[in-house]
Design goal:
Elements lengths: L1 E8 L3 H13 L3 E4 L6 H4 L31 H5 L6 H15 L3 E2 L4 E6 L4 E5 L2 E10 L19 E2 L13 E5 L3 H12 L3 E6 L17 H11 L4 E5 L2 E7 L2 E6 L4 E4 L4 E2 L37 E2 L7
Parallel strand pairs: 1-2, 1-6, 2-3, 6-15, 7-14, 8-9, 8-14, 9-10
Antiparallel strand pairs: 4-5, 5-6, 11-12, 12-13
Helix pairs in contact: 1-4, 5-6
The protein binds flavin-adenine dinucleotide.
Flavin-adenine dinucleotide (FAD) binds next to helix 1 and helix 2.
Length: about 300
């Protein structure tokens, strides 16, 4: 069994960011990553870019919005404001090299159990033991459609690698936040018609909270499609999707039925990847893990931390 003080699960920005700090403290740690560094970013469709702009603001004491540790800047390295997933993945690899971060790839954590003084992790590469566990497995690899019955008759937006390859010319997009607006924009650019179904008016939120309101980057795209003949918006909440012969029906909470010839696209976001430690999590009413506000530690176990990074 391999033993270390801290195990970080997941080599994405959250896991590598924490590791870069531990590296500077001398505390022994290891990252366990099921595939390679930055896997989630390498899985992004080619067209997808970072939404927050990168700028090398380090010289005047501010971090690049997309950097995960001091003295690095994706904007400086790539001379670009909006990196693709592949480029951001390369940035993560360069941070790992720069800080000499210790980790083991192709190691999938399959089960976590609480021990008297720490945690035991079962992986496809054997057992590991640690006192402190940092669970940084992100969301991108766990598309959320569970609140819609019959979601198997839809495609999740993250699995569409290229809008051009979608057969059909008239699409329903469920969800009008970042991913929904972006996919609608791309479909219209590819001469397709789009109806976006969203519970609220998309540009009618008076808040500066970026987890609720469209980023300026996506808002610019929204302004372009909003006035297009090819774009339609429906206010409503989709509760179920069913297949009717060669077409599909979406049932809304107010009992409205919307029919479409093509598989609906669910741009309904993501949920945390927590399967291997599901039994250890205390949940909030909205289904997210309940964490201590200052430390991101679980409310039930003080040595279990779930760092989260802004997600779309
Ligand atoms: C199109 C798009 C644009 C975005 N733009 C921005 C932006 O501009 N700015 C921004 O801040 N955020 C943006 N995000 C969100 C950002 O990508 C995520 O918030 C970020 O990736 C979360 O980082 P993470 O380290 O928590 O998770 P991830 O990057 O998903 O990393 C988790 C890692 O854990 C590994 N893993 C999972 N399960 C296991 C297991 N059982 N054992 C071992 N390893 C495991 C995975 O392989 C993965 O490498 C965007 C997302 C999308 C989809």
């Amino acid at each position: 069994m391999t033993v270390s003080s801290v195990i970080i699960v997941g080599a994405g920005p959250a896991g590598i960011g924490v590791a870069s700090l531990l590296e500077q403290t001398g505390i022994d740690y290891v990252i366990l990553e099921k595939k390679v560094i930055g896997t989630s970013f390498l899985k992004w469709p080619k067209r997808m870019e970072m939404i927050t702009p990168s700028f090398p603001s380090n010289a005047f004491g501010q971090m690049d919005l997309n950097s995960i540790c001091e003295s690095t800047s994706p904007g400086f390295s790539f001379k670009k404001e909006h990196l693709t997933g592949k480029e951001y993945g390369e940035y993560l690899v360069s941070v790992v090299d720069y800080f000499n971060i210790k980790g083991q790839t192709n190691t999938e954590v399959q089960k976590v159990t609480k021990q008297k003084e720490g945690w035991r992790l079962e992986t496809n590469q054997g057992s590991f033991y640690c006192k402190y566990l940092i669970w940084a497995t992100g969301e991108f690899q766990n598309p959320k459609t569970s609140n819609i019955l019959g979601s198997k008759y839809s495609i999740h937006s993250s699995s569409i690698k290229d809008c051009k390859s979608l057969k059909g010319d008239d699409f329903i997009v469920v969800g009008g936040y970042e991913s929904g607006v972006q996919i609608a924009y791309e479909l219209i650019e590819n001469n397709k018609k789009v109806t976006v179904i969203n519970p609220d008016k998309i540009d009618d939120k008076y808040t500066s909270d970026p987890s609720k309101v469209l980023s300026p980057y996506t808002h610019e795209k929204y302004q372009k499609i909003k006035s297009s003949q090819a774009y339609k918006e429906v206010l409503g909440e989709v509760t179920s999707i069913s297949e009717k012969g060669s077409s599909y029906e979406l049932l809304l909470a107010d009992n409205t039925i919307i029919k479409t010839q093509n598989k609906p696209i669910c741009a309904t976001g993501f949920s945390l990847v927590i399967k291997p430690l599901e039994q250890l999590i205390t949940y909030r009413k909205d289904g997210s893990p309940k964490l201590q506000e200052q430390s991101d530690e679980s409310v039930s176990y003080t040595h279990l931390t779930l760092p989260t990074i802004y997600s779309v």
